[in-house]
Specification:
With 261 residues, this protein is α+β, with helices and mostly antiparallel strands. The protein has helices at 2-18, 35-52, 80-84, 97-101, 144-147, 227-231; strands at 30-34, 58-59, 75-76, 117-127, 137-140, 167-169, 189-195, 200-205, 219-224, 236-240, 251-256. The strands form two sheets. Strands 1, 4, 5, 6, 7, 8, 9, 10 and 11 form a nine-stranded mixed β-sheet that branches. It has a two-stranded parallel ribbon with strand order 2-3. The longest helix has 18 residues, at 35-52. The radius of gyration is 18 Å and the shape is globular.
Length: 261
């Protein structure tokens, strides 16, 4: 009971701090979930298991949050903390670059736009001409601790060779190309090409003349390679709802995450 009271108090404090603010006002880096994308991905998983007549137990190693409250379900846990704080959501509904690279579902049911998780970061510095073929590089304040340091394993002849990045910029506030059906073999646009503990270096993949300009201090959102690893570095999710036209970037809820083993 004491733990539940503490969790409820924390959630109340986080909601008071963030709800009503936009992603341009929150600290960076921050972890974001887009609620309608999460809901659609959950529905698609349930529909697939029902259509195939499969019994299914959700793995909850990514979500690690008691929000929203779970209905009766069968689950798999990785840690004692998860078992003590059981819930109903998991990695698959968030989607990430790994699932996109392996084409985990048919293209009609899974595109980059279905990825529900992202990390908000800020452009800290620009380096014109430092990249390949004279392209720009940019420093962001999200590195290993925010994005994780595990590459994507794709289905290419040499796994990971086609796309060696550590994350991919969303077309959020900029006209960045998005990964299409030929990803990871084709992946033009801004990606996190190198990372250190606290910072990532954005590199441009493609022709120099097609480079999408970035600005110092600009907010960007990064699709991480692995949602479960990216989430491990944060205490909470900021929830947005892209169905709210004109307010797509407004925080509507905060979901505290469990920490520990």
């Amino acid at each position: 009971m004491a733990a539940n009271t503490s969790d409820a108090k924390l959630k109340e404090q986080l909601r008071a701090r963030f709800v009503g603010k936009t992603l341009h006002d929150v600290p960076t880096p921050s972890l974001v979930l887009d609620l309608p994308k999460l809901e659609v991905n959950c529905e698609r998983m349930l529909e697939a298991t029902e259509r195939l007549g499969l019994l299914w137990r959700a793995h909850i190693k990514s979500h690690k949050s008691a929000t929203p409250p779970p209905p009766p379900v069968s689950l798999i846990v990785s840690t004692l903390i998860e078992a003590e704080n059981i819930l109903a959501l998991l990695q698959d509904p968030t989607l990430d670059m790994q699932q996109l690279a392996t084409h985990a579902r048919d293209q009609s049911l899974m595109t980059a736009d279905d990825i529900a998780i992202s990390v908000v970061a800020e452009v800290a510095s620009l380096y014109p001409g430092r990249g390949v073929n004279g392209t720009t590089e940019a420093l962001i304040n999200a590195g290993t601790l925010a994005l994780g340091r595990e590459p994507v394993t794709d289905k290419g002849k040499v796994p990971g060779q086609d796309y060696p990045g550590w994350g991919f910029l969303m077309p959020w506030g900029l006209n960045n190309p998005v990964p299409g059906p030929d990803f990871p073999r084709v992946h033009d646009g801004w990606q996190v090409g190198r990372i250190s503990q606290e910072h990532g270096v954005l590199t441009w993949q493609g022709k120099k003349e097609d480079e999408v300009p970035l600005k110092y201090g600009q907010r960007v959102r990064v699709w991480p390679n692995h949602s479960c690893i990216a989430g491990a570095g944060f205490d909470y999710y900021l929830i947005v709802d892209s169905r709210n036209k004109g307010r797509e970037d407004e925080v509507v809820d905060v979901w505290p995450r469990w920490r520990g083993w």
